[in-house]
Predict the structure.
Amino acid sequence: MQVRPPQTDAEFARYYDLRYRVLRAPWGGEPGSERDEQEDAADHALLVDDAGNPLAVGRLHLNAPEEAQVRYVAVAEEARGRGYGRQIMAYLEAVARGRGAAAIVLNAREGVVRFYEKLGYQVAGPGPTLFGTVKHSRMHKPLK
Ligand SMILES: CC(C)(COP(=O)(O)OP(=O)(O)OC[C@H]1O[C@@H](n2cnc3c(N)ncnc32)[C@H](O)[C@@H]1OP(=O)(O)O)[C@@H](O)C(=O)NCCC(=O)NCCS
């Protein structure tokens, strides 16, 4: 299975739905809170199973020409631990390099910092707190 951008409106709908189910619904986030103002300009990563169901998603946008940011990495609960999160990140890092970025930043939830450390990211400091309870660490990885 290969990571690729969503290709149709229906596929984009399933892509955003996985984001919502994994990253927003468990905390009572409103539908729509799984998107931000960068969607049109961003690069989107999607991994689907043979039936077309999304297994994993992620997104990359540029904060500045040299700095890319990864957001909304989510793997379906039943598909975790099979390397799909790693595949999404490898794809987004390749996209970032192609866009000329020198580094990637992201905000990692507590409990997921170790996942990103395994992929070469380092904690740079505290990040935002979502829904008043979900604490994040700011993480960084140079690409060059
Ligand atoms: C975090 C998440 C993206 C990881 O995806 P995944 O497909 O299960 O991870 P992978 O199978 O690619 O794991 C890659 C490596 O990271 C490790 N890993 C994965 N999740 C981990 C975690 N929460 N803590 C520590 N290590 C973790 C794996 O054991 C594996 O290590 P290995 O290469 O030594 O075997 C996934 O669990 C998820 O979607 N979680 C809920 C949403 C979330 O928190 N997203 C991140 C928002 S910041």
In short: DSSP finds three helices and six strands in the chain. The CA atoms of residues 17 and 34 lie 8 Å apart. The mean pLDDT is 96. The longest strand covers residues 54-64.
